[in-house]
Amino acid sequence: MRQGLFAVMYLIAKGCGWMGNFLRALPVACVILFEWNGFTLAAETVDFVRDVQPLLKARCQRCHSPTTRKGGLDLSTAAGLLQGSESGRVLVPGKPSESRLWEVLHEGEMPPDGNQALTGSQVELLERWITQGAVLGETSRSQKKTLNQHDVLPILLLRCVTCHGRQIQEGGLDLRSTAAMLKGGESGPALIAGDADASLLIQKIRAQQMPPREKLAAYSIKPVEASELERLIQWIEQGATEVNVLADVANGEPDSMVDEEDRQFWAFQSPQKPDLPAAAVSNASPVGMSALQNPVDRFVQQRLAERELHLTPRADLLTLLRRAHFDLLGLPPSAALVQQVIEKADPLAYEKWIDRLLASPHYGERWGQYWLDLAGYADSEGVQHSDPVRPHAFRYRDYVIRAFNSDKPYSRFLMEQIAGDELADYETSAVIDEVIYDNLVATGFLRMSADGTFAGITGFVPNRLDVIDDQLRILTASVMGLTVRCARCHSHKFDPIPQRDYYRLVALLKPAFDENDWLKPIGGGNGQAAGKVRYLPYVTTAERTAWENAEHKLSEQIDALQAAIEKKSGDDAFKKKAETQIKSLEAQRRPQPMVRALWDRGQPSPTYLLQRGDYLRPGHLVGPGIPSVLMSDQTPFNPQPPWQDARKTGNRLALARWLTRADHPLAARVIVNRVWKHHFGRGIVATLDDFGAAGARPTHPELLDWLAVEFIESGWSLKQLHRLLMTSATYQQDSAVVREHQVRDPDNRWLSRMSLRRMEAEVLRDSLLAMSDKLDRRAFGPADAIESREDGLVTSRAQDGGYRRSVYVLKRRTKRLTILDNFDRPRMSPNCVDRTVSTVAPQALHLMNNKMVHQLSLSFADRMISETGKSASAQIQGMYLTAVGRPPDVVELEVLTDSLVALRGRWERHLIQNSKAPDGQQVEPAAHRFALGNLVHAMMNSAAFLYID
After folding, report:
1. What is the DSSP string of 624-657?
2. pLDDT digit string, tens, across residues 723-763
3. Rounded to whole angstroms, what are the CA distances from 494 to 267, 356, 473, 501?
4. Which of 659, 685, 706 delimits the end of a domain?
5. Nearest to 670 by CA among 832, 477, 835, 830
6. Residues 629 and 496 in one domain
7. Strand, helix or coil at 577?
8. Is the pTM of the predicted complex or chain greater than 0.85?
């Protein structure tokens, strides 16, 4: 090296003039030598066994060994590196920036938490190795992978089976298997093993005849890409190899990606019923000072005592009456009931109220809305601006309301919604009764997400996968309390849910949700697939018979008129009249009654793990299953056809049975926590949809487990759960905040008082209508229409009996009732697990200025005048009893009476000044009506009305 240095310096110095230029030559020589030395080092070959493998072993094997394999990645061997992770390959020879291994090491993402981080020179070494081709051994450069059917089947499923699959087989050709391709269709075999050039499949693709260019948009497919064609050719040239590949499924055996420590997390353990804490004495008991007998109170008081707190004394009966009415019915108590409580204050009557309220048909309308939020219920498809209406979605809404009213066991409720089509053989049943009908309608739970696949431009495979993802999110978040969706593109960052488990769930749903054999939400298919949409004709036999009879009667009348026209062919006047009658009769026809359902359609296309969530990068084959962390000998998952000779897989039925096992760790906890939240304003677990590591920890874990087990032991009865919670001293507390609360329990985490809550959007609208005697209480049936003004205001259309409850108003994604929108009614994207509560200017402005609110205030005034007579004092009393559930105090009555007199005088002057023929006899009652309407309007804008103590 020294000789080389002096040789370089000699040549430079000689060229520049000897000795005098030596000093100037020295820096140049150093630069050249540095570059020369760097070039020499860079040119040195990095050896995997000598240089790379020891480095990976020292820094990475704790998480990526044959036994751990986090993310499905083993970095201990060349084979493991070649196989890559569950998200795909981690090495791209010659391209460090595209190699995931180098990327995470270079960015410092791995090793996690900065443990044993690689030095800059070590990262540089890996970069050079990848740049040089990431050679793993002598044969790695020249060895060419032998492809099998699973390397090419995803291409055919993506590009070809729309026309050559289950629904359609153009030219008699099915491309879903090697055997079918070898058999071919009307034009002969689609492939010749070993000869790609002679294979009709390759010829048609090369000629750009397949997929047909003119059908690409209609079928939502794209042409075969060059890399895909190359892979097809390689597979055929290698002999169209088929291998028996076992799908990756959870089987209860040790899993390298989920360990025992993961399974020990509290939410993944079956709930156990703890012993009740010792009874404490409290002045918050429903009947004065006594021992707290309700188990809920014992657990709550125990946590309060740890913080030197206690339960707040019981609220007064009128407050409890209003609280219970809004909680269970979403409507205010009647003035007559409030007056009855005032006249006969019976503390023991409270439990009777609860039973009466739970028996009300309005209970299902109130609590059904919470479930519809979870399901993402909407009456339109969304995505596209046209936002087409779902004409049969209302059946699912009605099913939910009926289920809550009948106190259907929650376990059965879940079973029907997840797998109702697999509970009875509806296809061969001679009679479709209410049970079978409900089973099918219930599956609409998995048909509620926004879905734009009815249109070609938003009907491609990625769009379909988004729909499946949304439905999977709805199922797992609302029922299991897990954020499984996070594992679509990579293993979950916080919970032990590998990406593989996400695709196991996708495979589980695939017999009903197959992106390669898609049923459009509307419009049907094309050609042989025409009419293949998401509806079944299996309404009850009684409903179908009634529809058929009505259609038959109309047809008879129309036929008779047409025959009469022919008989009187020369009578133009008669013909015109008869044609008008025919047109009127035709308008009376009703669409065929259908059910928007989800049903198992038999064995689906295979499911592949999509690397990084990219539909163009299918990985290994995955079978149906549940998250491995929840799999054990005690909670087996074993799909079987639901009955003998059934064409259905039984996948979802197995899932439903697994979810509703008494020892399931999540199902009961999650629903109990939701019910608790709606009664107390906050869940025991604050993150209602996330019971995982990133979610909140339960404030009262023993109480949550006790309630979950009690819920199961009570037959999964939601009404019994309501009764238990609402008869507790904890629920009956006053909402007053004292200094002690502000210091030790400022956000009421420990339930030292009842939380003050604002009316939800639907409750506000329904209450305004009920108080004004404009609420049409008819239940069920198609949704009520909405109207949209040019300025964007959206209102509901009045029926003959007034306006129906908000749950029955059309829920269109692009046109939402303005009053509900202003007051935080959620947008379904894809669903709502927990409503937000905002305080914004449009809320106050709407109640103050909206025309309909003004009209309702006058209707309320008319009602008070009609029911209470001419006495201003009685009218004000009635207004208070109806709107806020209590009488006015002395000061309020005096102030409002004076205000009413002043307002009446102003209205009299205004009416006289603007009347064409002033008449005192007519002006006075009108002025009083408007003045009382002003008071009512002020009450509708008050916190006393809007908030529930």
Report:
1. S---GGG--SSS------SSTT-SS--HHHHHHH
2. 999 999 999 999 999 999 999 999 999 999 999 999 999 99
3. 14, 45, 17, 14
4. 659
5. 477
6. yes
7. helix
8. yes
